[in-house]
Design goal:
It is a single-pass membrane protein; Single-pass type II membrane protein. With 603 residues, this protein is α/β, with parallel strands linked by helices. It has 17 helices and 19 strands. It has a seven-stranded mixed β-sheet. The longest helix is centred in the N-terminal third of the chain and has 25 residues. It is globular, with a radius of gyration of 26 Å. The N and C termini lie far apart (56 Å). Bound molecules: S-adenosylmethionine.
Amino acid sequence: MEISVDGVLKARKFPFIFSFFILLLFLLVSFLFLSDTQSQIPVRYDLGTPQTSIIVKSSVPPPAPTPTVSLPLPSFHKTVVAGVSENATTEVADLKWSRCIGPVAVDYIPCLDNFKVMKKLKGKRRMKRKERHCPQPNPRCLVPLPKGYKIPVLWPKSRDRVWFNNVPHPKLVEFKKDQNWVQQDGDYLVFPGGGTQFKDGVMHYVNYIEQTLPAIKWGKLGRVVLDVGCGVASFGGYMLDKEVITMSFAPKDEHEAQIQFALERGIPATLAIIGTQRLTFPDNAFDLIHCSRCRVHWHGDGGKPLLELNRILRPGGYFIWSATPVYQDDEKHKTVWDAMVALTESICWNVVAKAFYETGIGLVIYQKPVTSHCYQSRKENNPPMCDRNRWNNISWYAPLDNCIPPLPEPTYRWPVAWPERLNSRPVSLSGLADVESFYDDTKHWSQLVSGMYRQKFPIKWTSVRNVMDMNAGYGGFAAALIDLPLWVMNVIPVHELDTLPVIFDRGLIGIYHDWCEPLSTYPRSYDMLHANSLFGNLRLRCDITEVAIEMDRILRPGGFLLVKDTMEVTNKLTPILRSLHWSITLHHEQFLIATKGFWRPRR
Ligand SMILES: C[S@@+](CC[C@H](N)C(=O)[O-])C[C@H]1O[C@@H](n2cnc3c(N)ncnc32)[C@H](O)[C@@H]1O
């Protein structure tokens, strides 16, 4: 049968004509779209990592690099993967994946769930159980999903409710019932904003603090806070309303899944403990440190726990201690209070306020000195001053100190008020070249993020809340995202230049970490991982496959990985990510964007 246009019109086959035009339109749009994503414009956004050497405060050399692990390289087989930019290699690494097994498999944190090592730590060393003990070699299994796992509730709703099936841990609902930490409501866990010291909601408590000490100026001069022993991190979650960014932390202990709840809620949090080792933060980092009934014996172990706070508190910064020894005067509490008075005086902390509220609680606020005058005029050099020449600024598997670190010289300046602080000259940068490189870096990231990352890349920014910058440099990536409703954990790898003080100076948060080891966080903690020029150095020290396994563990299904690196690195990484069933696109020969799906190995 002959088909002509005339014939079709005469036969009034309008539905057919309509469908035909829709098809044509679809083909045209697809062609335009593909030609855009596949166009290989030879543009190089050459931002790199800062070139100038900065902040080499440490006179002690960094820890010796972990020996290179030489594991057999994966072999590859070719498959054609649809919808991928032509230049991205389509190879799939021939790796056989299996699921992690055992009672904690879905929530597996390799360095905190090393039960074999933990069991051996008895007596005084019990505290060490909650510190990092990484298995050797790194695990090669993939964490399974909890039954009924769903894409998490979006911020800001997530601050108040999350899916129960995503974090199916009901113990705190009962255990902290009278303190309003968390309740169960059908398919959800609900967080009413209560806590041990703020049963009736954290906002009253925060306002009380500001009335007690107006100089705190939440969100202006007091921008970066550390909440020690944070529970489910409601304090940090609500402080965001005041433009305050809080690093909330607590150990993995009997407060079941507290940090997992915090991260599921979209609140910045990490697993850590005040135990026998330094926290993974730089000196003079936090504007304010808060502890409400955080159960740390500050004067124990010769006062080392409080000396650790002294190390990481900014000169002139405040420590808020809201705990029973402040407002209960039975014998037991009085002993603790007296010990705290002696210790804080010996390290020259001033009491700037002490208050008792009608809710029955009370708190004391201390301030760290800005100059060394008081240290020098102490009757006894106890605790001693740390030896300036031997002072080691690297806080990675470093034991707690029993000394007072030297203050920055000559006079300490507090950062300018937020939000100007974000792009102003950081107080820890002194050299002119470093300052210039900081400004250049800030400009580059601002242009790259606004011009490329947020415009051109297949990233659904509205679903992104918890972000990790795996090699954060000066924190330019985080700074360029400041207007979005997300937060960034800036990581400074321990073998890179120590730029973490600059990140805190800017009013952002971060930690040190070695990516050759698993991170102290729960599986499915982050919506996005960003890795700028990370893998080149890393590949010399450990197996990139293991780093990919760790990224797979900490990224949520549906989450994004954005790698900015050389083609050599991308070509190594892509087949491994494909074997994990991640979908991948490559842009301008230096940006790899991968999305993790829901795939898990069968067994
Ligand atoms: C009673 S809860 C208080 C929680 C929260 N601050 C509040 O007021 O609701 C005690 C908290 O301190 C944490 N904690 C206990 N020992 C700690 C330590 N050595 N270092 C840091 N946090 C600790 C617990 O995990 C828990 O989060």
